[in-house]
Amino acid sequence: MFPLRFEVAGEPVEVRVSTLLNAGYAGRGQDDVAAHVAELAELGVPAPTRTPCLYPVAPYLAMQVDEVPVQHGRTSGEAEWALVVAGPDERDVLLTVACDHTDRELEVHGVAWSKQAGPDVLGRRAWRLADVADRVDELTLTAWAGGERIQRGTLGELLTPQYWLGELRERGLLAEGTVLLSGTIPMDVGVDQFAGSWRVELGDPATGDTLACEYAVRRMPEPVA
Q1: Which InterPro entries match (predicted)?
Q2: Domain 4-219 carries which CATH code?
């Protein structure tokens, strides 16, 4: 598997992903969780039996790419943050921006299956979690689909990085090479998520710094079968 490479405070950090996890239905408030369940229900996705959820994903699906090939027109991303465990120490835990690109046709048959049908696209820059931990709730998440803003919120709407570090520790997964995506915030009302491009930004209002990931969605040729 190709390693992920991040710029962290001007220095390169390389991580070989051994465990990739996608959190789901991870809003801190039940209203946000209910809103996301309703969004997915409109697409035919059955409600989970418990929240939050945690879906293991093939590690090779953690990518830093400019283009995502898809099989049909009903795929879309989601604005998320990602934890990246880059080493054994507390300061080796990185925070970056991510977009979970999901096959919505397959999702109606099983969320876990759909997570295997598209990549988790991560940014190429990251912050050390310890450097932003005192203001993590104020960090912003914004997404655009096809140039139209589709999501806007703060990390205060989602379960915290510390919560997920505790979950990883409890499950024996807090180890170098683990990457966890946060789950997403609600989408704006009336927007079209099935677009030809996606951009997600993770912003720090205290410094004005922004991490971004952006990619085009490319439709593959029809199968010959």
Answers
A1: DUF2848, Fumarylacetoacetase_C_sf
A2: 3.90.850.10
